[in-house]
Amino acid sequence: MTLREGAPVADAMMELTETSPCAGLLPLRIGGWALEEVPPGALTLIAPYKGQEQALSAALEAVHGMGFPAPNRSHAAREASLIWFGRAQALLIGPPAAEDLAPLAALTDVSDGWAMVRLEGAGAEDVLARLVPLDLRPQVFEIGHSARTELKHMMASITKVEENAFQIMVFRSLARTLVHDLKRAMEAVAARG
Amino acid sequence: MRICCPLCGARDRREYSYRGAALPLPDLAADVEVWHAHVHLRQNPAGPLEELWQHEMGCGAWLKVTRNTATHEILAVTLAEEACA
Predict the structure, then answer these.
(1) Above 50 in pLDDT, residue A35?
(2) Pick from A61, A117, A120, A137: most CB atoms within 10 A?
(3) How far is B47 from chain A (nearest CA, A)?
(4) What are the sequence ranges of the domains in chain A?
């Protein structure tokens, strides 16, 4: 976009419209499953400084009501969730991170960086079984469990948020590929009847 | 082949990327011949070998993996940060 000489910058900025990562792609309903975009709010990557792990967990508990999650686990509170996001990392979803945390951990605002969708319906794990090399059956991957893994060659975060519902995250630039692959998997499993 | 990540549990090989043999780093001031050996010369044993793998598609951690190069049996896995501590 080029600006007319002399045109106020604010006028040009007014024409920009924010779009969500999966805008125009979702929702989808195929077979017994619904695939919807999750409006993420703020996303903050929290990486504790060396030796501050316990202090950080206590501070998180105090301000956000959730301690630092153990590997492969997540916490959910009202309008916020905290999911384990890799070695010595957690992702706070919903509210912005409290400033009290800044001395204890590196806080990185990654809002807009991730596409976040929710796959819901009985047997949703059968759809994901086509794409993910993990056992996501309910007796193994329970509510609150979370995993960093691969989804059809994409780095993904998968969290079981409710019975029959998974939250799936990939980098925002892969949103279209994610929806395409999930759609194909839903269609394929639905076709088996 | 599956590698048991100390953080994530047993995961498929496709989630990992391979770095190479886990070798002690020479002193920075060491002789050029020592560095040449470190960079280029390998024993290539048919049997147990200590290697570095990264759980790239998972938690991102670097792992020190002892793998039998003849059978692909994984004999031991530790976080690299603990192996070096």
Answers:
(1) yes
(2) A117
(3) 28
(4) 22-40+113-191, 42-109
Q: Is B12 near chain A, with CB under 8 Å?
A: yes
Residue B32 host element (H or E) = helix B32-40
Dist CA B16 CA B61 (whole Å): 10
Q: Does residue A159 have a pLDDT over 70?
A: yes
Position A149 pLDDT exceeds 80: yes
Structure tokens at B77: 């896995």
Q: For residue A149, give the nearest of B7, B57, B61 by CB distance.
A: B57
Contact B58/A at CB under 8 A: yes
Give dist(CA A95, CA A97) in Å, integer. Answer: 6
Residue A1 has pLDDT above 50, yes or no: no
> β-strand A33-37 against A28-30: which pairing, if any?
antiparallel
Selected residue with higher pLDDT from A93 and B85? A93
Helix (H) or strand (E) holding A103: none
Residue ranges covered by each domain of chain B:
2-83
Round to whole Å and give the CA distance between A138 and A180: 25
Pairwise CB contact (< 8 Å): B60 & A148: yes
Looking at chain B, the whole-number percentage of residues with pLDDT higher than 70 is: 99
Nearest to A148 among B8, B14, B79 (CB): B8
Residues of A engaging B, defined by a Cβ cutoff of 8 Å: 71-72, 86-87, 89, 133-134, 147-150, 155
In this complex, the residue of A133, A134, A148 whose CB is nearest that of residue B59 is A148
User: Which fold would CATH assign to domain A22-40+113-191?
Assistant: Gyrase A; domain 2 (3.30.1360)
- The ipTM assigned to this model is 0.86
Q: Is the CATH code 3.30.2270.10 the one for domain B2-83?
A: yes
- Considering only alpha carbons, which residue of chain B is nearest residue A146? B8
Pairwise CA distance, residues B84 & A117, whole Å: 39
Probe site for chain B from A87, A136, A153 (most B CB atoms < 10 A): A87
